[in-house]
Amino acid sequence: MIRITQQNSASSAKRYYATADYYSEGQEIVGSWGGKGATRLGLEGTVDKFSFERLCDNLDPRTGEPLTVRTRTERRVGYDFTFSVPKSVSLLYAMSGDQDILEAFRASVDDTMREIETEMKTRVRMNREDCNRTTGNMVWAEFIHTTSRPVEGIPDPQLHAHVFVFNTTWDGSETRWKAGQFADIKRDSPYFQAAFRVRLANRLQDLGFGVERKRDDFEIAGIPKDVLGRFSRRTALIEKVAEEKGITDPKRKDLLGAETREKKESALSWESLRKLWNTRLTDRERTDLAAVHRRDHVAARLLHGEALAVDHAVEHSFVRDAVLPERKLLTEALKRGLGAVTVDDVTREMQDRPLIRSEIDGRKMATTKEMLAQESKLIDYARLGRGRCRPLGDPERPCSRDWFNEGQKAAVAHVLGSRDRVMIIRGVAGTGKTTLEQEIGEALAEVGKPVVALAQSVKASREVLREEAGFANADTVALFLKDKEMQASAKGGVILVDEASMLGTRDMLRVFGVAEGVGARVILVGDRRQHRSVTAGEPLKLLEEKAGLRVAQVTEIHRQKGDYKKVAQALSDGRTGEAFEELDRLGWIKQVPDEDRYEQLAAAYLSAAAEKKKDGNQKSALVVSPTHAEAARITLAIRAGLKTEGKLGDERMVDVWIPKHLTDAQKADATEYDTGDLLQFHQNATGHQKGSRQIVEDGMKLPTELANRFEVYRPMQLPLAVGDRVRLTAGGKTKDGEHRLSNGSLLTVQGFTKRGDLIVDHGWIIDRDFGHLSHGYVVTSHASQGVTVDKVFVGVSSESFPATYQRTAYVALTRGREQAQIYTDDKTDLLKAIRRMDEPLSATELSEDQQQKPALTARLMKRLGFSRGFSVFDGRQNLSQPGASNDHMNERGLDHAG
After folding, report:
1. Which residue in 69, 288, 456, 824 is a FRET match for 769, CA 20 to 30 A apart?
2. Residue 894 — very low, low, confident or very high, per pLDDT cuts 50/70/90?
3. How many CA atoms lie within 13 A of 226 on its CB side?
4. What is the pLDDT of residue 855?
5. Is 693 helix (H, G, I), strand (E, B) or coil?
6. How many CB atoms lie within 10 A of CB 772?
7. CA 119/CA 134 separation, integer angstroms
8. Is residue 122 within a helix (H) or strand (E), and if so which, with residue range?
C-alpha cells in the first residue's frame, strides 16, 4: 500500500529520517537519493545527513542559500510516501534473506515514484488567477525498513519504504526552485497504489513466486493465513484497542498506532530476530515456507488479462457514477487484473475503449456511450412530450385546502393544466410537499385519473405516501418496475414519483418506458439540492436543465418558524455560510472535544426525546451523522445513557447481517467474498428460490454467474437489550408469516423467546436467524431525507468531513420543526466541508461542445476545491503531531450505522 503523510516540522523530519534510533542494526538500509530534482542539486547515491538537514531547512545543500523564495515557520517540509508490501512478502524476505525480493520491492517503488514525479506541479499566477504548471521533477530520499514497531519488545517482519519528498521543485519556466503542489498526487494515490502492487506482483512472478490476488491486494501463494496472522501482531493489537474503544473508522485506527507504540528497550540483531520468529513456526511450517522460497510448485504466470480487467472496471464503476476520472477506471482495472496485467497494457487497453472523454482542469474524465444514450433518451422523452397531451384537469379548480400559499396553488394548477408528458414540481425542504401531493391526488381522482405513487424507500412509500398523503397503494420504484399488475394500474393515469432526486438515470428511464407503454403521464416531485441517487446520474437535474420543461417552484417554508426558518431558507438557497452563522448565533453549533462530544450529544438527544408536547404526546427527535462509523460511536453513547437511566435491560449478542453493497461486477469476482458471508437471493434462479440463503465456506463454488440474483452480507454481532430501538435493514416476514417486515421500519425490543427470537411491537416475533437489523438511534443524512421530527441533532467530526457536502447539511439540518443542533470538534473546517458542492458531471455535459468547457472547468474546480483547502491527508496524519503513526496497515470494510 501507499500512505502519503504531510510533514510540517523540520526538526521532526530531521530526527525521524536522519537518525537510526528507530531501528536496530540490520533492520534498516542506508537511504538513497532519487528524483530529477535531486540530480539537479548534485545529490546522488547515499543520503548524507548534512544535505538532508539542509533540505529540511529549505536550504540549497551546495551553497547554504535559501532554496525557495519563502521560508515560513509553518511551511510544509515535505511528504512521506510510505510503501508497504503484503505480509507474505515481508515474512518470506525476513526468513530467507533473499535479496532478489528486496530488489523487486525497490524497483517497484522506484518505478512508481518516477511515474509520480512526472506529475509534480507548482503554483503559478496567470491572468490574475492561480493555476498549476507541471514541472515533472522531485527531490526525494528513500529509506528501506524491514520491521514493524515492536509488540512486547519484539518487532514483526514488515518490509516498507519511507520515501521523503521535499516540498520543492525546479520550475524551468521561471528558472528557480519553488514549492510543490501535491494535491493532485494525493488525490490520485489510489491509482499509484494499484500500479505499485501490480509492478511488485509481476516482479515476484518473474522470480518464480506464485501470487494470489486478495481483493485489492495479493499474497505469495502457499503461505497459510494463520501463519501470516502470527506475524501481524501490531495490526492485531490496534484492532483490539479499536474494538475496546468502539473505533471502526480506518483513519482513527491509524491514529491508534501512536497510542499503542512501544519504545525499543534494547537492540536486537537481525539474526536474533530471525531466531525469535522461527519459534513461532512449527517444523512443518518452516519446511513449507522453504518450499515456497524454492518455488517447488509454481503456476504459470497469467498473461494478457487487461481486456477482462478493463471490462470489470467499466461494468463496476459506471453503476454508481455517470462520469468518472479515467484514473479511477485505471485503478479498478489494475486491482482486478493484479497478477495478470501490466500497468502499460491496462493503460493501452483503456485508451482503445470507445469511451467518451474530455480533459477538464488537466484531469481526464470519461463516460460511456451507453450512459450518454440513456441520458439522451431521457431528455428526448420529456422534450418531445411537451404539449402533446390533453390537460389532466381544470387548472382553475380551487384547492380544497384554502390555506395553501400561492406556490402550492400554482403547483396544483400547473399539474392540472399541463399538456406535457412529464411534469416537475421542485419543492424545497419543509414546504409541505406531502400535503401538496395529497391535494393533487384528490384533484386527479375527481376527474377519474388513477395515480400510482412511488418513492425510493419502503419507509417513504408506506409511512409518507400511504399514511400521510393518502395514496393507499403507494410502493417503491423497485417494486413498480418489476410488478406488471402495478404498472397496468397506471394505464391512462399518472405516475407520481416522490423525492425524485433520489432516482438514478437507469431507473428514471425505466419509469418513463413503463409510462409510455401504459399511456401514463409522469409527475416528478423533489428538490435537486437534496440527496441524489446512489446509482449513476442525476436525471431530475438533467431534465430541469436540458428538457425545456416548466418547473413549478414551491419555496415557502412551513416546517420551521422564526430564526430556524431563516436557517432553512438559507440552506435551500445554497447560502450555506449564512445558515452556519445563524446557527452559531443561536448557540446551536457545539464544538466539543472527542472525549466529551458523543456523551453530550447523547444527553441532549435523550432529553429532547423525553419532552412532551402541549397535547401530552411525546416529542420526536432524530440523530443524523454523515458516516456509519461516526453513527456507531454516537449509538454507543446513546445506549450508555439509556442504560444509566435504567431503560435498557440485560444485553445479549444477536447475529446480524451487514450489506456489503457489492455491484454485480464485484459479485462476479470470487475474491470479494469472505468465509462466513451470506448470499441471499432476491430473485428465483437455477437451483435457488427467492429468499433462499447460502453461507460462504472455504473451497465452495460460488454462484458468481448469478450475480444479479442475490445480495451479499457480512456477519456481525449486535448488542441488544429489552428497550432497544432497532431498524430493519431489509424486508421480510414475522416468524409466523402473518406480518410483513418493511425495510427501514423502527421497532422496539420487548423481549426474547427462549430460542433467542426477538419480540417487538404488537407482540410480533422476529426469527433469530432473520438478521437484517441495526440499532435505530442514528441515521445517515441520506436515510434522513423525507423525515420530519421536532428536534434534530447532527454529529459530524473531522473524520466525517470528507463525506460532508452542502446537500448533506441541507438535508440533515432541515429535518427539525423546532431546533437543529450540530456537535463537532472543529467549526472552521466544518464550514469548509458544508460549503462544498457535490455536483458530478452528467454524460451529456461531458460530451458538449468545446465552447462550454470553461463552465465545466469552473464546476469541477468547485467540486475539487475542498481537497485543496482541506485534504483527508493534510495535517491529520502529520509526523510532527504527537498522535502520528508510522505503522502500515491495510484495513478495509464497510462500517455499520447504529
Report:
1. 456
2. very low
3. 4
4. 63
5. strand
6. 20
7. 6
8. strand 121-126
Q: What is the pLDDT of residues 738-797, one digit of tens each?
A: 999 999 899 999 999 999 999 999 999 999 999 999 999 999 999 999 899 999 999 999
Cell of residue 167, nine digits: 516540498
C-alpha grid cell, residue 30: 542506508
Among 829, 825, 816, 819, which Cα is nearest to 869's? Answer: 829
Q: What is the mean pLDDT of residues 322-329?
A: 96
CB atoms within 10 A of CB 23: 18
Nearest alpha carbon to residue 671 among 295, 331, 312: 312
Task: Compute the chain's Rg from CA coordinates.
Answer: 30
Residues 100 and 205: their CA atoms lie apart, in Å, by: 12
Give dist(CA 698, CA 611) in Å, integer.
52
Q: Backbone dihedral region of 249: left (phi > 0), alpha (psi from -120 to 50 degrees) or beta? A: beta
pLDDT band at 302 (very low <50, low <70, confident <90, very high): confident
Mention the CATH class of domain 372-554: alpha beta
Asked if pLDDT for residue 869 goes beyond 50, the answer is: no
List, for residues 645-666, the tens digit of each pLDDT value: 999 999 999 999 999 999 999 9
Q: Cell 531466531 belongs to which residue? A: 275
Q: Where in the chain do CATH 3.40.50.300 domains reside? A: 372-554
The DSSP output letter for 616 is S
Q: How far apart are CA 8 and CA 713, in angstroms?
A: 42
d(CA 367, CA 353): 11
- Structure confidence by residue, pLDDT tens digits, 475-525: 999 999 999 999 999 999 999 999 999 999 999 999 999 999 999 999 999
Half-sphere exposure of 188 (CA within 13 A, CB side): 23
pLDDT in tens, 821-836: 999 999 999 999 999 9
Find the distance separating the first CA and the last CA of the chain, reported in whole Å: 30
DSSP per residue, 511-567? HHHHHHHHT-EEEEEE-TTS---SSS--HHHHHHHHS---EEEE----S--HHHHHH
